[in-house]
Amino acid sequence: MEILNEFNDATERLSERDRMARVMDAFLNLPRERALSAMPVLVHCSAYAGKVDHFKKGEEHCFRNEEAFNFLPGREASNVMRLNPYAVRDEFLGVSNWSGAYDFLCSTGQFWTWSETITWSDFQRWQRFARAVQERSRLVDAIRSGTVDDEQSEIMQALMGFYPRSFNFVPEPIFTYTDPITGKKQEETLRELRIRRSQDTQRAAIERLFDSDRHKRIIEVFTWFRRPPGDACSIEWLPKTKADADSIPPDIKTDRLTFDLLLPREALRPVLVIYTFTTLHAVAAAIFADYCNGIEYRTCEFCKRLFALGRQKAKRFCNKEKCKNAAHAKKVRAAFRERTARAANK
C-alpha cells in the first residue's frame, strides 16, 4: 500500500511539472492582443460566528464552535457576517495568548473544516505557518542561496502539497492518564486518547478513517496559501463604476442575470473572485491576493510584526512611531560609533 501511495505521489508531481511546463510555454507565446490587463483580486469572506466554548484538557486550552461548524449555508442568513479577509488575517497573526484566540474565534466563525474544536497549540502552529508564507521573500532567498533550514523545508513541502505527516512547529498536546491495570501515569497524544477510548474494532476503524480525512483536508488548506483551487476561484464581470451599476433599469434586476448580460462590455471589468468558507481559508486567500498584487512583507526588527514594503525594499522597520524612533536611535548610535572609530584611528 505504501509503495502504491509513493507511486501516486510521484505521478502527481510529474503531472504537475508537465502542466506548469505547458502553461509556461503558452504564456511565452501569448499573442499580445489576447492579453488581459491587470485585474483586481477580490476575496469574498463570510462567516457564521456561533457560540465558542472554552475548556482545558490537561494544560492545553481548547475551543469548540460546534454551532458554526454544523452551520449550513442558506439558513439563518441574517446571522451571516461579511468579513474583511485582510483584517481577519492581521488580527489572526496578532493574537498572542489563548484569551485573544478565544475573542478572535468568537468573531470569525468556523476556523477549519475537519473539526469543531481547535487547541491553542494548533492556533499557534497555523500562525507560524501563515507568517512564514506571508514573508515569502525570505523563503525565496533561502531557496536561491541554498540555506533552507528544516522549518523552511517543511513549509516548501506543505505549499507543494507533499507535506509529510509530521508538522511539529508546535508539538501535539500530550495528555496524562492513569493506567487502570498498573496504576502508573501514562502520556498520550489526542489521537491515541481517542483510539484508547474506542470500545470496539469498528470504532477504532472510524477513528483511523477520520485521521486520514483530516490529513487530506490539512494538505488542501496548505496548498491554499500557494494557490487556491480552481473551484474556489471565478472571474466575474463587474461594473467599472457605481454609475454603471446604477444605469441598470430597476425593473430588470434579478438574481438570475449576471452583469455581463445587463451592461455593455465597455462598462465592465474582469475581477478574480476567491470564495472562502472558513477563517483559515480567508487568511490563506488574503495572503495569496497580496502576493498577486505584488505586495511584499517583512518582519519589523523591533516589534517583530509583519509590515508591507513600499518602494524602500531595504527597509527593516514598520511605520509605528515607537519602531521609527528605535530605528532612528539605532542609526544615531551607529553613526556615533563610526565617528569615534575614525577619531581613534587618526
By helix and strand content, what is the structural category?
Answer: alpha+beta
Beta strands, count: 11
SSE pattern: HEEEHEHHEHHHEEHHEHEHEEH
- Counting DSSP H or I runs of 4 or more residues, the number of helices is 12
What value does the average pLDDT take? Answer: 77
Strand content: 15-25%
**Spans where pLDDT lies below 50 across 5 or more residues:** 168-173
Give Rg in angstroms.
25 Å
Provide structural commentary.
- The protein contains twelve helices and eleven strands.
- By secondary structure, the chain is α+β, with helices and mostly antiparallel strands.
- The chain folds into two domains: 38-231 and 275-295, no CATH class; 296-346, no CATH class.
- The strands form four sheets. Strands 4-1-9-8 form a four-stranded mixed beta sheet.
- Strand 10 (297-299) and strand 11 (306-308) form a beta hairpin.
- Helix 3 (85-94) packs across helix 11, helix 5 packs parallel to helix 11 (279-292) and helix 8 (190-196) packs antiparallel against helix 9.
- The longest helix has 27 residues, at 2-28.
- The protein is globular.
- The N and C termini lie far apart (75 Å).
Write the layout of secondary structure elements.
Blueprint: H1 2-28, E1 41-48, E2 53-57, E3 60-64, H2 66-69, E4 80-82, H3 85-94, H4 98-108, E5 117-119, H5 120-134, H6 136-145, H7 150-159, E6 174-178, E7 185-189, H8 190-196, H9 201-224, E8 233-239, H10 242-246, E9 268-276, H11 279-292, E10 297-299, E11 306-308, H12 321-345
